[in-house]
Amino acid sequence: MRFQKSDLLTLLVSLFIFTGCENPSSIGLDVDPDIELNSKLVDTSTVVTKLLKQDTIAVSYTDQSVLGYLKDPVFGETTASIAMALTMPSTNYKFGTNPIIDSAVLVIPYLNFYGDSLNSTFTAEVRELNEVLYNESQKVYFSNKTWDKKATILGSATLKTSYKDSITLQDIRTGLSDTVKKVPAQLRVKLDANFIKSKIVEADSLKKVSNLTFNNYFNGLYLSVNKSATTGNGGLFGLNTSSSGAARLEIFYRNTNTSGGLDTLTSTFNITAANAATELKWETNGTAVETALASNTTNNDLLYLKGLGGTYIKVNFPYLQKLKALGSNVTINRAELVFYIDDNNDYAPLDRLRIYRWDIAHRPQYVPDENPSDARYMGPNFVGGFYSKANKAYTVNLTGYIQDLMRGQLKDYGTFISAEDFTSSTGSLNNLGRSILGGGSNTNYKVKLRVFYTDQK
């Protein structure tokens, strides 16, 4: 009965904390004053942290694709390119009678940017893919894939770091006068019209029977950044290849109508999350990250956490069982893991840290505090992990998890901190940034496990 009473008290206290938060993004960042006043605090429990390199991540069927080149003196160089297949407007697609191509433009809307927006300029380049991307088996590609592409540049353009600014374009309307329209900021690369004419417009009809036959014939496009032409430290762009009709190849042309005149038309070949895959390269030669990853230490002083399949952190609580010495009448009101950032750097920290645990088969699982099937679950954001600019720290709520570990109801097969949300099958490319955190052996920014408890004697 004591365990039932303890769980109920914890649930009620947690509910009070959750409903008292006006800003959902602040959940898990601060301890409720009532808990501080009515609880005792232990924050000297040893936390051991080890920096690890991720093997691979999924880079297709993602919320966004990534393009760019970022030179980071601490983390090294990250290069992101995009392989894309095209989807025809319809099967057996035809361009009409005597089509005359005017232009062809690759269009991909911007979503976000991370890096040096003040001093950097970028040149995007488009080439033809030299291997098949699209297939009907819904194949998922991973970050260790290097795409084969042809050397010829089909078009180039300048990338804008002012990705939030809208632009004005000419709107071509069939049978009506052209007008202008305002659209969200987007990358627009004008491609070689003669190439598009011979490769797509004039392609044999048998090659356009279906998307499968079309993509076996024309593999697609490869979008990259010219590293040598990049100024400043560069950066990474999140591009919208997931929303319907957002990313596309627009072909503007004229053909003969039934009256013998010429109609101005546009054909759109869409790019979807199913046929866009980001290629990632990360070079760490001579960097602090390379040294930390190669170290044999079991407890890193600094933790270099990076998104885009970069790094993750293994966390151990070696002396957690010693908290049992507090006595059998103890109720844990809150347990939180706090990471402090080393703010002596020029890059913005990650917005949020994510936590997960391994089961006995080393498969990622929710911690109880984030598990919708657990009675103590208080919503997807209650576990916290959001960055607090005021505290220069991330706070992760582990109350239920620490309770279960102390009681022996769960065994710690591995606890991990990552930049990616392991629960999202499409979010592996959402975090372009990085953070430098104090580890378990750090003096100034030491990670802490803070346990607030009440003795019910």
- Uncertain stretches of 5 or more adjacent residues: 1-29
Determine the number of helices (DSSP H or I, runs of at least 4 residues): 6
**Amount of helix:** 10-25%
- Total number of strands: 25
Shape: elongated
Proportion in β-strands: 35-45%
- End-to-end separation in angstroms reads 15 Å
User: Which class best fits the helix and strand makeup?
Assistant: mainly beta
> Major beta sheet, specifics?
11 strands, antiparallel
- Overall pLDDT confidence: 86
- Rg over C-alpha atoms, rounded to the nearest angstrom: 27 Å
Looking at this protein, list some descriptive labels.
eleven-stranded antiparallel sheet, 25 strands, mainly beta, five-stranded antiparallel sheet, 457 residues, 12% helix, elongated, 6 helices
Structure characterization notes:
This protein has 457 residues and is mainly beta. The protein has helices spanning 2-19, 33-38, 193-201, 211-217, 288-294, 399-407, and strands at 40-45, 48-53, 65-72, 76-84, 100-115, 122-128, 155-159, 167-171, 179-183, 186-191, 221-225, 234-239, 247-256, 262-271, 276-283, 302-306, 311-316, 330-340, 354-358, 364-365, 384-388, 393-397, 415-418, 434-438, 448-455. Strands 3, 4, 5, 6, 7, 10, 11, 12, 13, 14 and 15 form an 11-stranded antiparallel sheet that branches. The protein is elongated. The protein starts with a helix and ends with a strand.
